[in-house]
Structures are given as structure tokens and as C-alpha cells.
Amino acid sequence: MAISAREAAHRAASDAERIAWVDEQDNLLGGLPRAELRERGLIGRGTFILLFNSAGLLCVHRRTLSKAIYPGYWDVAAGGMVGEGESYAESAARELHEELGIAGVALHEHGRFFFDVPGNRLWCAVYAAVSDAPLRLQPEEVLEARFIAPQQALEEALGKPYCPDSLQALRLYLAARA
């Protein structure tokens, strides 16, 4: 399936964005274009925002086919790369608003982890938020969204393509609450 011109333009702009570049201990080294960070196998910073409704259901969404990493996969978290000069918290608020249209909600951090697979090396901060506001999906990044029980997402991931980095974020969140 081909991507739209709008998605292609969004992908090109995304690849050029300057991202926080860090070492294996999450020490800031500077900023690099997203595509260069990936191509060179360097480490960036990322945020994962688990959005729940007041009934405790988790928002899962399907990524567009234009995404550089995990295109078309289901994702349990809004989020993305931390921009150069941006904090984890600033990135989390920005990404939640951009991808799902949710702003002005309390974001609670639930830990950090290092995710390291070829083509996707990240220091990750995990946040959670609760909102019953209507979702406004970013068409360049999100195809569809729905709310399900967190455990259902983990079960679905056994048979459907889910983003492994955000699944790790969900597992960290659930383990801390157990």
C-alpha cells in the first residue's frame, strides 16, 4: 500500500528533525537529525505516554504505513523522540497533543529504560495520563485508535504486530503498579 504525499512530506520533515543524542548512560551528547541517528546506530531519547480513560482502559492505536520504524504496527503509547533542547516531560506533553489531540492533562512519570535493537536505540521515559476527552488523531501518524484493557494489549501482541518498545514501556508501568 502506497503512502500519501502528505505522509511522505511528514516523513521527510520528521527525518530531518534534530533529536536529543545521548550515550548508553543517558548523558546528553548534543543533537542530530533523526535519520542520521538511526543510520549511524546512535542512541536518542524517546517518550511513551500511556493514555487511559477514567474506566482504566488503555488507548491503543495503529501507526501509519509511512512511519520509519514499525509502520502499520499497533502501539500502546503515544510518544516519540525527544527534540534537541527539549526535556522528557516537554516531549511527552507535545507528543500526546500531536498524536492524539490530548492536552492540559497531568502526566505522571513511571520510570525510564534503555531499549536497544538494531535501528532503534533509545533511552525511554514512561508517562501515564487519564483523559475522557475525545481523541483527535494526527492523520500522518495514526490510522485508528481504540480503548482496551492493558492486559488485552499484551495478549493481542502475541498474534498481532505491536511496537516492542512501547510494550516494554507498558510492562514497566504494570510492574511498578503490581
Polypeptide structure, described:
Its cofactor is Mg(2+). Mg(2+) binds at residues 95, 99. It comes from Aquipseudomonas alcaligenes. InterPro entries: NUDIX_hydrolase-like_dom_sf, NUDIX_hydrolase_dom, NUDIX_hydrolase_YfcD_pred. This protein has 178 residues and is an alpha+beta fold. The protein has 5 helices and 9 strands; from the N terminus they run H-E-E-H-E-E-E-E-H-E-E-E-H-H. It has helices at residues 5-16, 34-39, 88-100, 150-156, 164-177; strands at 18-22, 28-33, 43-52, 58-63, 74-75, 78-81, 108-117, 120-130, 142-148. Strands 1, 2, 3, 6, 7 and 8 form a 6-stranded mixed sheet that branches. It has a 3-stranded antiparallel sheet with strand order 5-4-9. A hairpin with a 5-residue loop joins strand 1 (18-22) and strand 2. It is globular. The mean pLDDT is 93.
- CATH homolog superfamily: Nucleoside Triphosphate Pyrophosphohydrolase
Supply the number of helical segments: 5
Task: Identify the CATH class.
Answer: Alpha Beta
User: What is the architecture at the second tier of CATH?
Assistant: Alpha-Beta Complex
Count every beta strand, where a strand is a DSSP E run of 2 or more residues: 9
**Rounded radius of gyration (Å):** 15 Å
Overall mean pLDDT stands at 93
Q: What is the SS-derived class?
A: alpha+beta
Bin the strand percentage: 25-35%
Name the poorly predicted regions: none
* CATH fold type: Nucleoside Triphosphate Pyrophosphohydrolase
Distance separating the two termini: 41 Å
Oligomer: single chain
**What profile does the largest beta sheet have?**
6 strands, mixed
The topology string of helices and strands comes to HEEHEEEEHEEEHH
Helicity, in percent? 25-40%
General shape: globular
Number of domains: 1
